[in-house]
Design brief:
single chain; alpha/beta; Nucleotidyltransferase, domain 5; 5-stranded mixed β-sheet; two-stranded antiparallel sheet
C-alpha cells in the first residue's frame, strides 16, 4: 500500500504587522528610548547631571551717553546662579580676555569652587588661548551651536535681566560709572534677587524661615533699601 501523498506548499503565511506607534508605546511604558538614541545624552540631561560643575559666560554690550561702546564679560554658576562680573572694557582684545580668564581661574581656586565645564558661544572675541588656560585648570570648554542661544539660556537670561533692570534704566557716563553700576547689580543679584530655580533663594542667601505666627503676620515691618539712587530696590523684613 502506497503512503499518503504529502503536498508541500511554498506559500508563506503572512505575519501580523505591528505599527511603529505600537512599538513606541511599548518602549515608552518600559522606560526605554529608541535604539539609535539609547546611549546618547541630550543637552538638557547633560545640564542636569553636571549642574554643580557648570559655568557659563558671555559678553554684554552697552553704550555710554558719549557714544562709547563698552563690553562686559560675566560668568554665572548654574547650580547657585551666582554671577561674577569679570570686567568691562572698550577694547576687548585677546590679551584683555586672556588675563580676565586667568583672574577667573584664580578666583575659583581661592573660593574652592569645583568647575568641570564652561559654556560659551563662538564669539570671535574669545581667543583660542583661553581654552588652553581653562584646560590646565581642569575645565573643559563647551561651545554652543551656531545661532542656538538657548544652549546658553541661563547666561542669556541674566543678560536680559541686567539690561531690563539696570542698563535700560541708567544713563552710563563712562567706564568707571559702568563698573560701579555693575558692582551694585552684582551684589543685588547675588545677595537679594530671588530665583525660582532655587525655590526663591538668592545665590548667596538662603530662603528665610516662614512666618507662621498670626500676630507677626499682622504686624509685619518691611523696610526698603535703594541701590544706585533708587534704580534697584531691596525689601527686608525687620524682626
Amino acid at each position: 500500500m502506497l503512503p499518503p501523498l504529502q503536498v508541500h506548499s511554498s506559500k508563506r503565511v503572512p505575519l501580523a504587522v505591528i505599527a511603529p506607534s505600537t512599538v513606541w508605546e511599548i518602549l515608552k511604558q518600559e522606560g526605554l528610548d529608541p535604539a539609535p538614541d539609547r546611549h546618547a545624552t541630550t543637552w538638557s540631561a547633560f545640564l542636569r547631571s553636571q549642574v554643580r560643575a557648570l559655568l557659563a559666560c558671555d559678553f554684554l554690550e552697552t553704550v555710554t551717553v558719549t557714544g562709547q561702546r563698552q563690553y562686559v564679560l560675566a560668568v554665572i554658576e548654574h547650580a547657585t546662579r551666582r554671577i561674577r562680573v569679570l570686567g568691562t572694557t572698550a577694547h576687548p582684545t585677546a590679551a584683555w580676555v586672556t588675563q580676565t580668564i586667568k583672574n577667573l581661574v584664580m578666583d575659583l581656586e581661592d573660593a574652592g569652587t569645583t568647575v568641570k565645564f564652561l559654556i560659551r558661544d563662538r564669539d570671535a572675541k574669545f581667543p583660542n588661548l583661553i581654552d588652553e588656560i581653562l584646560a590646565d585648570a581642569g575645565i573643559q570648554t563647551v561651545l554652543t551651536g551656531i545661532r542656538v542661544p538657548r544652549m546658553n539660556s541661563i547666561m542669556e537670561r541674566w543678560v536680559q535681566s541686567c539690561r531690563h533692570e539696570l542698563l535700560d534704566r541708567t544713563l552710563i557716563w563712562n567706564e568707571h560709572h559702568l563698573r560701579h553700576a555693575l558692582r551694585e547689580y552684582e551684589k543685588f543679584s547675588n545677595s537679594h534677587r530671588a530665583h525660582q530655580a532655587r525655590r526663591q533663594a538668592a545665590p548667596l542667601r538662603p530662603v528665610p524661615a516662614p512666618i507662621t505666627d498670626p500676630d507677626r503676620i499682622a504686624h509685619l515691618t518691611i523696610r526698603r533699601h535703594d541701590r544706585l539712587g533708587g534704580v534697584l530696590h531691596e525689601y527686608l523684613h525687620v524682626a
